[in-house]
Amino acid sequence: xxxxxxxxxxxxxxxxxxSCVGNFTSPQELNLIIAKCTRIEIHLLTPxxxxxxxxxxxxxxxxxxxxxxxxxxxxxxxxxxxxxxxFCVLQWDADASELITRAMGDVSDRIGRPTDYGQIGIIDPDxxxxxxxxxxxxxxxIPFDNKGQLKEAFNIRxxxxxxxxxxxxxxxxxxxxxxxxxxxxDARHVKTYEVVIKDKDFVEGPWSxxxxxxxxxxxxxxxxxLGGVIIIGEQTIVYxxxxxxxxxxxxxxxxxxxxxxxxxxxxxxxxxxxxLLHLLVIIHEKxxxxxxxxxxxxxxxVASTISYLDNAFVYVGSSYGDSQLIKLNLQPDAKGSYVExxxxxxxxxxxxxxxxxxxERQGQGQVVTCSGAFKDGSLRVVxxxxxxxxxxxxxxxxxxxxxxxRSATDDPYDTFLVVSFISETRIxxxxxxxxxxxxxxxxxxxxxxxxxxxxAVHNQLIQVTAQSVRLVSCSSRELLNEWKAPSGFSxxxxxxxxxxxxxxxxxxxxxxxxxxxxxxTEVKHxxxxxxxxxxxxxxIGEDSKFSKLAAVGMWTDNSVRIFSxxxxxxxxxxxxxxxxxxxxxxxxxxxxxxxxxxxxxxGHLFNFLLNVNTGELSDRKxxxxxxxxxxxxxxxxxxxTHVFAASxxxxxxxxxxxxxxxxxxxxxxxxxxCPFNSAAFPDSLAIAKEGELTIGSxxxxxxxxxxxxxxxxxxxxICHQEQNRAFATCNVKYSQSNMDESEMHFIRxxxxxxxxxxxxxxxxxxxxxxSILSCSFTDDSNAYICVGTAYVLPEENEPxxxxxxxxxxxxxxxMLVAEKETKGAVYSLNAFNGKLLAxxxxxxxxxxxxxxxxxxxxxxxxxxxxxxxxxxxxQTRGDFIVxxxxxxxxxxxxxxxxxxxxxxxxxxxxASWMTAVExxxxxxxxxxxxxxxxxxxxxxxxAATDEERGRLEVIGEYHLGEFVNRFRHGSLVMRLPDSESSxxxxxxxxxxxxxxxxxxxxxxxxFKFFEKLQGCLVKVIKGVGGLSHEQWRSFNNEKKTADARGxxxxxxxxxxxxxxxxxxxxxxxxxxxxxxxxxxxxxEMTRLH
Amino acid sequence: MGSLLGNWPSYDPHNFxxxxxxxxxxxxxxxxATYHPTHNRTLPPDNQVxxxxxxxxxxxxxxxxxxxxxxxxxxxxxxxxxxxxxxQLRGSNADDSKPYE
Lengths: 1089, 101
Fold this sequence. Notes:
The structure holds two protein chains of two kinds.
Chain A: E1 5-11, E2 18-22, E3 31-36, E4 39-46, E5 49-57, E6 62-68, E7 77-82, E8 86-93, E9 98-106, E10 120-123, E11 129-133, E12 138-143, E13 154-157, E14 162-168, E15 176-182, E16 188-196, E17 201-209, E18 218-221, E19 229-232, E20 236-240, E21 245-249, E22 255-260, E23 267-272, E24 276-285, E25 288-299, E26 303-310, E27 313-318, E28 323-328, E29 339-345, E30 353-357, E31 366-371, E32 378-384, E33 388-395, E34 401-405, E35 416-420, E36 425-430, E37 436-439, E38 450-456, E39 460-465, E40 468-473, E41 479-484, E42 491-496, E43 500-505, E44 509-516, E45 519-527, E46 532-536, E47 549-554, E48 559-564, E49 569-575, E50 582-590, E51 593-600, E52 604-610, E53 617-624, E54 631-637, E55 640-646, E56 651-656, E57 659-664, E58 672-676, E59 684-689, E60 692-698, E61 704-710, E62 714-721, E63 726-737, E64 740-751, E65 757-762, E66 767-775, E67 784-791, E68 802-810, E69 813-822, E70 826-832, E71 835-840, E72 843-851, E73 857-865, E74 871-877, E75 880-885, E76 890-896, E77 901-907, E78 914-919, E79 924-929, E80 933-938, ...
Parallel strand pairs in A: 1-87
Antiparallel strand pairs in A: 1-84, 2-3, 3-4, 4-5, 6-7, 7-8, 8-9, 10-11, 11-12, 12-13, 14-15, 15-16, 16-17, 18-19, 19-20, 20-21, 22-23, 23-24, 24-25, 26-27, 27-28, 28-29, 30-31, 31-32, 32-61, 33-60, 34-35, 35-36, 36-37, 38-39, 39-40, 40-41, 42-43, 43-44, 44-45, 46-47, 47-48, 48-49, 50-51, 51-52, ...
Helix pairs in contact in A: 2-5
Chain B: H1 2-5, E1 33-34, E2 49-50, H2 57-78, H3 87-96
């Protein structure tokens, strides 16, 4: 049963909705603060650019974000209001590096109609009050007292019901607002009011202005000494104050965002719906405005927010494309643009559709999204894990170990690759043609398995075999010295660094050698009580050639021990517990933090914090990486050290913000890995898989990889056709010629590797692509691409005509083979029992694929089902059809073969406005609706009465805080057949804000465990601004608010891993589960995405 | 154009002075640490938990008018006119409230 669900974000929202600049983290520091729906990011302006400081989750969807400076404060405070009527005032405590809450509260009203044009939150420039417009006809005031403390809020009646914008005017003796509104004849005006706090009322303000541009939508208050306000329309820009009125015409455009450039308010940046950036200048003589001027600067992403930063650098935050850091140049470039884009910040939003495909056929899903809008539309390929780009490979069986060697100590590149087999060692080298060929190092013993190899000090090489340790000259390649194992003993395991060798022979003998000029010296020899299973002396202290610590893994007591060098004195013995022996140990350091990693024979990995000075271990953690023995090796990529864990589930271990992270490598099974940084293949890895040696370069070390394919048009629907290795999309291309804006709709076919357009099909005028599907039909082996369309006529409220087009791909071209007219928009298409199921306006319609006498094919209507407002989203399973309606929630239909009929089986009677549906299992269905909630419903097949059977029971409710456009079954990660997490089915979702998330259906047992953990975490991890997690996740629509149930907040649960050890202990005590076990279980959940 | 574009404000001339733009084809990837507060100052001081006055606007206006009805008489007798700062409001409200008198 999929009733126990776990919701987690795989890719955080990236849609930038708000931004502001001020001295937030210190009086001297300038910060850019940006809001991405449910998160804020704090950046610092530095000589090197924008430096990200903190990503702050907010328990709410951010409606307004403002920095302000209360009287007497040296730095700015941050005001945040959320869409669910909470607000908070945050202050940065630089000493503790914490956000502290100065004030918070609830500004909801019991009665009130939420505003249609969004919430407005503004702060009086003289910090006398905060103004909020949340409900039609009401203006809420939160006054400041003279000490900067907030006082009880009150409402003032606002006569204007259709408010478009409100701003505070500068330089007014009493706080004064200017209101842009529309009257009931659709004319737009501005009006000013003074707020009289004592009387809790407005008085008429100093001026008003009637009959503005019909498209006036944005107010910009102008600071003193000029004062007044700029009103941005679609055809005019107006400056207005008590005494001055100036207007200029502009090219028709919709201005979405503005940013003030100068403190005195004489210049502003404006961005319109086409992403054109204008500079608006107020011309003034002394303090009197004499005119306005608007100049086109260039093009950026379509901005939702603009913040002038410093020294001509500007941040452009976008909801429809990537956000950007731009520079305003004094001279235009070759294209006449004054705008130079210096950085891009990925934004996947709005994700309007996506599909999950396994492009590399490695058993791992990739998400391909339709992202962005208008000119910034793109496809994005989102892939989890780290890819290896194969550059060369040879067939080689039975590899037991690999090491790379430089031909001289000071050589920047590796030359040799030493490959060890059960009874021989072969040496490969890059020849002058950059090919790998077999060579020899005379001083090496090639008729035995190599246990370890290393470049040593004084231009020497070390080879360890079962019989001896050989010291070889790099220049002559001849043997210089040899340490031989005592007779009767053979070396079992060995390790070395540039100047030290540590080896273990049978009988628990541990031998420590040091490397001199042409000589190996046995410095110390001890005997331990058990056999030694693994060793490491990777130098992580100050001396990069000499380690003061040795890590030793033991058989029998399954311990890992730290010894000091050169004395081999035992410092620490850590029992690992369990039956499994350690198979690989590694001393390593990431971001200045030292660790001991210890991998077991069953795919588990322990990590400990290591004190390099004392050798002490702390903060033991355990996670499961795979099921087979793991071998650990360090490697470098882009000058940073990472660890490669070779196993049946190869993993890269790296560190970000001083936290260890584990990222899957997109390879099935790796037995051995060694870095191989050769001149021909710089920064590469040599990887031994079953029967094969591969040399490849490694992707950037990060969890999610996103590849962007800019389209210059807006892709709205996507499907993948495996047979032709192609994506098919429904696209809209917007074009603008002088006054006319037109759109053209296309069906496009893209190669699924190169993303080249293979073929295009232009739809009729007014015809929109609404749905697309790759499918095949009964008695026909061809794969088809079916497209559902609607004729969107300006005079119609709902489309009354559409088409279903059936294409076949021939020689990479889309060929139309059949079309069928429909009586409405084809919102959804599904392959169903070898037929085609379409959702057309209020109807579900089933079509058969019929062979005509002339051999051609046609769609023939078989049966249908009426009774929806608009059937927008359809999923099927067997004979069951789940329909998500525009406003009537989810209903369940069944197709009856014998009768050739579709009947309703059950429905959810709630009035939910659906945005996506998916079938979790036979009985449980998942829905997302337009109040940003998720819910699950269950079919009651066993209920006693028809009435109950006809009702879908709501069994889970959760406020996601994101607008979901699509669910798809699938997984972003490669699943191991025998791991526990592979038993967890997952659904991926994509949202308007560009978030990608996972809904994972847990067992009841798992759910209870994580529910308890979530309950403990809520008490430890506090909501920023004092906002409550419970309230945030509670299901909420116009009619009701109910506690979340049947869903867990994976984001909160996985933040357990970010906690300090002390906090983990606190939770461990409350849970009565050891920290190690908690870490392991949470870590497993993080590997679902 | 040049005159409009010149003199961009500068708060700290060092900011962005050493910016090495990344290849615009490869978007910026720096991810900041996620903040999870565990301290006790996420809750504001008690008097800074703000709510909205419970009185409905209409009732508030009734009370205000009722007070005003009483107040001018006393005010007149005590001759405290200058203390009532907002002449405009009283004037307009006095007009509005005529039907009730």
